[in-house]
Each structure stands twice: as C-alpha cells, then as structure tokens.
Amino acid sequence: MRLREIILSADIEIKETIRWTTRRSGFGLIFTYEKDNIAFIYTYVTVDYVSLGFFFATELQDPKQLFQGTGARMRHIKVRSETDIPEAQVKAWAKEAMKLLRE
User: How many CA atoms, within 13 angstroms, populate the side-chain half-sphere of residue 41?
Assistant: First the structure.
C-alpha cells in the first residue's frame, strides 16, 4: 500500500501497528512515534476510498486545505487511487506530527 510506504519513509522512527478492527472494517493501521499515535489509515468495505488521518491534524499546516472532518483534533483525507496521494504533503505532516510530540 503506497500510503503506508510514504508515511514510513518520512522517518525511520515511525512504527506501525494494527490497533483495532471491526466487522465492517477492511483495514486499520496506526502509525506511532515513541509510542504516541500520529497517523492512521483505515477503510470500510462499504466505501470506495481509504482514509488517511492524523491525530493532531488541527495543529498541522494544511496550506491546500486537504483535510476533511470536524473532530476536535483529528482530520483525514480520502484517497481513491495512488494518483490522489499528495506524497510530499503526507511526509511533511508525518514529520510535523513528530515534531509536535517532541515539544
């Protein structure tokens, strides 16, 4: 999965784990830095996209306003194909999320 590769390539200290699934979930990954959650990828069998989200998205720079959602802190983007992935922005978000945790 290309999204997974992009996030993991942002920094060697980013780790991945499966933390939850439901009967309706097709896939769920959590990305962590020093045991703190920074990002997630999930999908449901009833939709035609994969969601990439960040736990502190409201604190991340989003110059193109790609994030969707109304959560207090979390936001996501919907990815329907590999050509939809804003690779440079995803890496930047991952690095920025790590920096927030260091502060």
Answer: 21
